[in-house]
Structures are given as structure tokens and as C-alpha cells.
Amino acid sequence: MRGNELNISAIPAFGDNYIWLLRAGGNACAVVDPGDEEPVLEVLQKQGLDLRYILLTHHHPDHSGGIPALLEQYQARVFGPDDERVPFVDRVCRDGDRIRLADLNADFEVLEVPAHTRSHIAFYGENALFSGDTLFSLGCGRFFEGTAADMQKSMDKLAALPAYTRVYCGHEYTQANAAFALQVEPDNPTLRARAREVEKLRAAGRITLPASLGDELAANPFLRTCEDSVVRAARKIDPAAMPGTTTMAVIRAWKDRF
Ligand SMILES: [Zn+2]
Question: Is 62 an active-site residue?
């Protein structure tokens, strides 16, 4: 029989990062992408939690920087990408791996989703997707170590997950992403509704996550590079844009200038 359901909450860090805290009723917990140890330690101590697992999506310091300090105080296993830049990862995760967080009774599948970084991974399970800086609500990460073709493949992989999946990404970028997405698809009704919702949430100082993957599929231009409306928008910039990778390249470059 299943125990308590997994509870996921945000620990804000550095202004617009989110460190995700996973609990299941007991005092065992996990964190995803702890870029800063201080806000994590504060929550752990205040709530009497024992950090058993750390999940890491990519090597960037704003996601990984707190890990060494957390390991000084907690004996946590670190699940992360195959990358020499994160030597503290003790369980290297590759595409298709299944990981079990036994103390939380939770299981996740690893998806390799390169482009933002070459070794970026995402964790999918328990109806949740921890997408790091690959998929944001209404946006995607910059292509620092990959190509538009890489990101297209990564987005295709995430798009195949169930629509009811809840997306927990690494940053609170949704409002700025909405403004850009509306440039691409000004008449998209799902996007317009989400943009209004996000505006209200941010005006109230509230988080815009998790997002529903179904809404993202209907409103996020980077998941919609094969849709006529998005390809048409890309062709206004580059008449040679075709559905898929070239449209991905055009709208990412457009967003970088936006
Ligand atoms: Zn990053």
C-alpha cells in the first residue's frame, strides 16, 4: 500500500531560482537543484527534516552550488548528470534510468535533455517533471552547450509525457516568457488565459508553478515549433523556417534579442 503522497514545495533562492523540496509525511526529504545551501538549511532545521536525497538537473552553480555544504551536514545521495564538473554526484543518471527514493516511496525516470548544457537531465515521476533549465513555463533555456536540433529533440521527449504532468522548472521566468510567447502567437487562447493568470499571480507575489504540461503543449512556443501559427511567425524573420528545428532556432534567437 502506498504511504503518504509526495508533497512538493518551493524554496526560493537568488531572486528567481526555485529549489524544490520533496516530502512524504515523515522527516525524510529530498531537494532538487540546491544552488544555495542557506535557504535549504533554514527550512530543514525549522521543519526538523532529514535530507536523504539531492537531485541535480545540470552543473550550473545556481543549481548545484549548495551541494558540497549540504553534504557536510547530511548524508544524502546525489543523483545527477554524467559530467566531470559535478564530482559530488555519487549516482550518475543516464537516459532511461529509473531511480527510487525509498524513504519517500517515490520513483523517477531520468530523461537526457541536452541543449542548455550538454549533460542536462530531467526527472519524471509521481506526475511531476523536474525540468531544470530545459523547459520553463512558456519558455525554454538558452542553448549554451547544444544546438536547436538538440533542444528540438529534448522538447519532443518532454512533449511525449502525459498532459497531466506537473512541470517544476528551475526559475520564475513565466511572466517574461509570456510576453515573448504573445509576440509569437498573439491569438492563442490558452496562452492569453495563462498570461492573464500569471500576471495576477505575480502581482500578488505568488509563484506561477507548477505548470500543467497540457497547458504548456497548448501555449509554449518552444513546444509548438511544428504548429502552423508558430512556423508562420518564424517565417516573418526567416522565410526558410520549416517546422521543427529551424523554427526552434529562429524563435530562440528572436527570444534572445527580445
Ligand atoms: Zn542553467
Answer: yes
Cβ–Cβ under 8 Å, residues 53 and 74: no
* pLDDT tens digit sequence for 14-23: 999 999 999 9
Please tell me the distance between residue 133's alpha carbon and the centre of ligand 1 in angstroms: 5
Q: What is the pLDDT of residue 4?
A: 62
Q: What is the pTM of this model?
A: 0.97
- Which residue among 33, 36, 62, 83 is the active-site one? 62
Q: In b/e form, how buried is each residue of 224-253, taking b as 16+ CB within 10 angstroms?
A: bbebeebbebbeeeeeebebbbbbbbbbbe
How far apart CA 258 and CA 256 sit, in angstroms, is 6
Q: Is-contact 178 191, C-beta < 8 A?
A: yes
Per-residue model confidence (pLDDT) at position 177: 98
- Residue 220 dihedral angles phi and psi, to the nearest 5°: -90, 115
Is 171 assigned a catalytic role?
A: yes
pLDDT of 48 higher than 60: yes
Choosing from 33, 36, 83, 116, the catalytic residue is 116
Q: In the predicted model, what is the mean pLDDT of residues 67-96?
A: 98
d(CA 240, CA 245): 12
